[in-house]
Amino acid sequence: MSGQRSLPHSKEALLKLYRTRLKDDVKSMLENFEEIVKLAKGEHDTQLSRMTQCEQDTYEMHVRAANIVRAGESLMKLVSDIKQYLILNDFPSVNEAITQNSKLFRTKQSECDQKLMSLRDDIAADLYDLEEEYYNSINK
Amino acid sequence: MPYSVNISVEAPIENQIHEITYDGTEIYQPPLSLSESLSKYAQKIDFSKTSEVEVKKEFSETTEDNKLEADSKETFQSNLWPWDTVRNKLRSALQEVCVLADVLAIAKDKRYMVLDPVQQEPLETKSMAQIYARKKALSGAANVLLTGAERLKTSQTEAARNRTVPDFHIELLRLRQNWRLKKVSNTIIGDLSYRTAGSKYIQTGTFEVSKTEEDEKPATPPSSPSPLSTGPVVPKTNTALKVSIPSELKGVAYIEVLCRKDQDDLCSANINLLGNGHTTTHPDMHWQQKLEAAQNVLFCKELFNQLAKEAVQLQAPIPHMVVGNQIMATVLPGIQLIIGLRHSTNVEKKPANSGKTEHDHVLEHSLHQLLREVHHKNTHHPFPHPATGPLGPSKKRMCAGPMAADRYELLEMTKTETLLEQIIKQAQHFFMRMRTEYVLDTIAKEVKDPLISSHWNTLNSPTQSCVKINISTHGYDALCRTPLVIHVGEKTLKCICRDGKVMYMSYEPQELRDLVFCHINQHQILAVQALAKTMGWQSLANSNHLGTGAVEPLGNASSCLLASPTGDRIIAVRCEPQSGVQVSVAHSPRTDFFPSRLVTERKWEHLGGQFRDVRLEKMEGRNFLHKMELLMASLTSNS
């Protein structure tokens, strides 16, 4: 799209930021999951005692699981941010809405004008008769 | 190898040259002494590289080392600097060795410390336990994941199920479709000013859009946000969107237009662009209404600002006054137009004089329209006719060159009317119309005999209207009618009479009154003449402005003389604006003739006799013309 190219730098940077956020979050999910799987294997030699190691693994798994959840929520936030960005910067749709609105109001206006005109004509005709009647009557 | 050349590498025997004198003799540095060269080599030793093995070796020969160290310390104490690092290393080594010796001494005693052999094999744990532990850890992690997923899912389904609460983004989209929004860092800023519509008012109308907090949402089902309907919407609407408006735009504002005559309100109109005055600022009003109210406030402020500026700048014969939130301008002598800005932020407070608004809202609408027109003009410039021409000058001025306009015409073009002038003109016209109406109605009420009917023209402008007056007699409409057309302007009245004469009158109602009365008299005389014609009578004389008789306070009396078909009867009619109609009758000749010495023949009786007044009020007949018809008929038949 040629319109995309003419975006100002800040917008472009923002879009890039969205992309990196997406990649980061997905990567974080994947990495954390991989780490959990690795931990589940449990093949690493350390100097710690087994119990301590187990405890550490448990803790690490929890943290990594929480990390995955956080990444998911961050993705949700990203979705909402992108939605917001789209809504605020989608000028074609805004223009469409404006045209539609103006069309609607124009038709409304002409409708109102028509109604007012017909009303005016009716009232004018009636007023003439009423004036005639009033000024020709005895009781004024 | 036999072919290789032996190269011996050795230090030069010579000492380093310290200085070369001018005569070429070289002065050598004295050779290093033994101790000096030792320290030089010792500096080159890197002690950090000494391996543990060496250290251990050192430990094993503790005592010897100690001795050696003590020796070296004594030896090189004098030459501190070059040996400093060496000394430090050795000292720390000594310390460690001392500590080790102490530990060993204590361990040997076996009273305070026991040395156990280090277990080489790790503790044998059961593999099942390990698996259980791992399983537990995994299930814990899974739990965390599941709860997280559950939370996401519920938040999604909540939004899907609760269709009653519109989604923030949908709301935002609606808002975006109707208002200008932009994102500034983390906040969404909107603009409700009329600047894009051509307004040049300095005050900004920015508002902030934010998401409603979850607990703030009321639980009642909302009405769907319809951005186009400005009608009464249930005030308690659930919206996911919150709009915060600057405090100076909060509340309800309207422009009050009052016409005051000698401190007495004649009419008042309240401008409130939202229609009725009962719009109150509800804290949880729908954003559309909230924004519209704020926009209205901004508009009213701009309008008032503009009017106040003009009021100060305008050079009026009676200067306009601007006091606080009120502008006072004199429309007609004794009548003032008061334009005030009312802005109430209080929810409870109702517009103070809502009861006085029984009048039409013409001035309200006009003011509104005038500013809109200014806005429109600001954005819609006439296109330059050669496309390369300057933008801005009006079409009229474009033609000024080819049409050879003179200075006066050009000056006329530059004149523009301010809003205040225009609204004053409209108010003036309003008063002129009201006065004209009043005068015509009172005359119609006062004068019963010729019927005065007025018809107001439907086509009129804010500063010009037209009324057609018909003076006719009931039952004799076809015979004679006197039409009058009055153009009501801003300060003057223009009357076009039956005979095409054009009269200009000022704003004083008395002038119109006099004119109408004058025309009533003329009508009576003309109608009598027309009637006479149909009756076969002859019109002898007719004067609209009779010079004889008592002097009238206004205008002149008009009269006419009518003669019967046979010519023996004459009717004289005299109409006076003040005293009404006088009718006199003369018989000639008298029915009986007796010759006398003076009048010897009957023919002299044709010269006319004495006029006798007719008491019209005693006569039969519905109106003047009817009576005249009866009179003429009776006079004709009698002959």
Notes on the structure:
The complex is a heterodimer of chains A (140) and B (639). With 140 residues, chain A is mainly alpha-helical. Chain A has helices spanning 2-5, 9-41, 50-89, 91-136. Chain A has 2 domains: 1-89; 97-140. Chain A contains 4 helices and no strands. The longest helix of chain A has 46 residues, at 91-136. By secondary structure, chain B is α+β, with helices and mostly antiparallel strands. Chain B is built from 13 helices and 21 strands. A 5-stranded antiparallel β-sheet of chain B has the order 8-7-11-10-9. In chain B, helix 3 packs antiparallel against helix 4 (84-109). Chain B is elongated, with a radius of gyration of 58 Å. Chains A and B meet through helix 2, helix 3 and helix 4 of A and helix 5, helix 6, strand 3, helix 11 and strand 12 of B.
Write a concise synopsis of the structure shown.
The complex is a heterodimer of chains A (140) and B (639). With 140 residues, chain A is mostly helical.
List keywords for this structure.
heterodimer, A: mainly alpha, 2 domains, disordered N terminus, B: 639 residues, alpha+beta, 4 domains, 13 helices, 37% helix, transcription (chain A), Mediator of RNA polymerase II transcription subunit 22 (chain A), transcription coregulator activity (chain A)
